[in-house]
Design a protein that fits this description.
The protein is α/β, with parallel strands linked by helices. It has a domain of about 70 residues. Helix content is about 40%, strand content about 15%. It is built from four helices and four strands, in the order βαβααβαβ. It has a four-stranded parallel sheet, sandwiched between helices. Helix 3 runs parallel beside helix 4.
C-alpha cells in the first residue's frame, strides 16, 4: 500500500465567489501532483466543493477532516502537505496540530511536494 498524503490549506475566503474556487483549484493542483508522486491523496477541498452553500455548521466539516487524519498512520508513511496560507486558516491549523500529535510528518508546499520513490 502506498502512503496517504492529506492536503491541508485554506478553503474559506472573504471573496466567497472567486476566492473559495481558487482555493479549491490550488488544492486540486497539489492533489494531482501527489497522486503522480506515488501517494494516495485525500483532498478535503475537492471532497466538499460546493457544500459551502449548505446549512451545516463549520464544526461538521472540521470534525470530518480530523476523522480522516485520525485514521492515518505515521508508521505507514502517511503525512500532510500544508498549502500556502495554512497558518491563516483556522481549520488547517487544527489539522496540522492534530497530525503533529499523532506523529505524522508535515510537509510545506514552499519546500516542495514529497515523493514516495
Amino acid at each position: 500500500m502506498k502512503p496517504i498524503l492529506y492536503i491541508s490549506g485554506p478553503f474559506s475566503h472573504e471573496d466567497t465567489l472567486h476566492g473559495i474556487e481558487q482555493n479549491i483549484l490550488t488544492a486540486s493542483k497539489y492533489a494531482l501532483e501527489a497522486w503522480k508522486n506515488g501517494f494516495y491523496c485525500i483532498c478535503p477541498h475537492k471532497n466538499t466543493s460546493g457544500f459551502q452553500h449548505c446549512d451545516l455548521p463549520y464544526e461538521t466539516w472540521i470534525e470530518g477532516d480530523l476523522a480522516f487524519i485520525d485514521r492515518m498512520q505515521a508508521n505507514k508513511g502517511d503525512c500532510l502537505l500544508m498549502l500556502d496560507g495554512w497558518d491563516k486558516s483556522k481549520g488547517a491549523v487544527k489539522e496540522r496540530d492534530f497530525a503533529l500529535e499523532k506523529g505524522l510528518k508535515i510537509y510545506y508546499v514552499c519546500t516542495g511536494i514529497p515523493k514516495t520513490n
